[in-house]
Amino acid sequence: MSRMVRLGTKILGIEVIKRNTQIMEENRPGLFISNHQHNIDVFLACEILPDRTVSLGKKSLRWIPLFGQFYWLSGNVLIDRKNKRRAHGTMDQVGEAIRERNTSIWMMPEGTRSHGRGVLPFKKGAFFTAINAQIPITPICISTYNTGLDFSKWKAGKVIIEVLDPIPTKGLTKRDVGQLCETTYQLVKNKVAQLDSELA
């Protein structure tokens, strides 16, 4: 899969600059979170995510021809966002699976694509999961595509992906979710702005 992704980014003319990716391997099992801009996020993430990492996606992804079936069969987790009770139950199961299977999970806590609007506020679901499982949160920051890429050119441009130091959750409780969410959001937002300034 990763080889196919690397080929895809070459075909699109995207140069991916990767920084500190070893941090993810050193902090497993864990929760990896990243900003969410476009469908190509999935392909870029596949370039850096370590083995035994699954992602969390909305249930409707299953119905996308070929991709949806492949996504589900690869062990990724689908949730029904419209049913909050069922979604919370799924998140609890995800936390248990992370601990029992030594598996990491990748989530995009904005909950929707930003499409060049900057890093949108994070939703709290990912942080509930991390605290329930008592696993570290490792932020992945991806530079804004509008800044570094131009698909009208043969060489579309550069994307910088930088992994930040993990944020521990041991000892935290549900009362800490709001602060944890906001702290992580500010870290990612500020780093993305810094990466964009490098590409401007």
TrEMBL record:
**Which residue intervals define the domain Phospholipid/glycerol acyltransferase in the entry?**
30-145
* Family named by the database record: Belongs to the 1-acyl-sn-glycerol-3-phosphate acyltransferase family.
Q: Which pathway does the protein contribute to?
A: Phospholipid metabolism; CDP-diacylglycerol biosynthesis; CDP-diacylglycerol from sn-glycerol 3-phosphate: step 2/3; Lipid metabolism
Looking up NCBIfam families in the UniProt record yields: AGP_acyltrn (TIGR00530)
As its record notes, the protein acts as a catalyst of: a 1-acyl-sn-glycero-3-phosphate + an acyl-CoA = a 1,2-diacyl-sn-glycero-3-phosphate + CoA
Instruction: List, in alphabetical order, the Gene Ontology terms for molecular function in this entry.
Output: 1-acylglycerol-3-phosphate O-acyltransferase activity
Comment text on domains: The HXXXXD motif is essential for acyltransferase activity and may constitute the binding site for the phosphate moiety of the glycerol-3-phosphate.
Q: What is this protein called?
A: 1-acyl-sn-glycerol-3-phosphate acyltransferase
